[in-house]
């Protein structure tokens, strides 16, 4: 099988700017994404990791056609979907939102929430009931939950319902936008393992968005590290986690709490961010920064991964 037959999604040179100031004399823009490119293979999990404001959720919204990019293209199975999705293409894409308390309609019973996408896409009522009973079990809940309302469920149960809604149309790709951040630590691993099992059993691909490199490293096959809308480093999970190259990736890994206090590492303080549009986006906070960083680096390919740094 060649790489083109494995490829499900291709994101090519995405750039997105938001207008933040508009006066008679001047317009100021915030660049949320700058020339971001990556691919998602069928049945794989791609992790997008970075701090708040790095552009992770913007990528997910563009893929789902919720917003349009200023530049770049998105291809689903080699079809350009940048400027619109057909009804059939929309069935192939789905999303899991961050907080199920706000993403689930409190006036609907769980069975109504799960049936709504099926109704929109014209499934007969008898099929809808059969599918809903199956997906609620697929996410580890009993059929009795179908007659409950969201407020009657715990946080972890609500997120399982949100996942059930995401898989009810049997999509090819799901954008999971920080689906564990609103949960207790004890529940996070259960949801991560559920996502992993859905990939293994149903062949669904995931784009998993998170600020937690520890979770992304556990779940993903491929990792993309973002900072200020720019890809700092991307490659296979094993390479990124075991041998990070970019200084920002190293700092993210260093911030992961140790298993035991005696394993604590010396933490390098991260400087405050200062806007530096001319040079490397990470220069003002980088412990390795030199005068050379006042010029933008180019991407360098090393053993199958790409790194955005002068010192590779």
Automatic annotation (TrEMBL):
What protein name is recorded for this chain?
ABC transporter ATP-binding protein
UniProt keyword terms in alphabetical order = ATP-binding, Nucleotide-binding, Transport
Keyword presence, Nucleotide-binding: yes
Instruction: Name the SMART domains for this protein.
Output: AAA
Q: What Pfam families does the record tag this protein with? A: ABC_tran (PF00005), oligo_HPY (PF08352)
- State whether keyword Aminoacyl-tRNA synthetase applies: no
Alphabetically, the GO molecular function entries are: ATP binding; ATP hydrolysis activity
> What InterPro entries has UniProt attached to this entry?
AAA+_ATPase (IPR003593), ABC_transp_ATP-bind (IPR050319), ABC_transporter-like_ATP-bd (IPR003439), ABC_transporter-like_CS (IPR017871), Oligopep_ABC_C (IPR013563), P-loop_NTPase (IPR027417)
Organism placement in taxonomy? Bacteria, Pseudomonadati, Aquificota, Aquificia, Aquificales
One GO BP on record is: transmembrane transport
Domain ABC transporter intervals = 9-253
Where on the tree of life does the source sit, at the highest rank? Bacteria
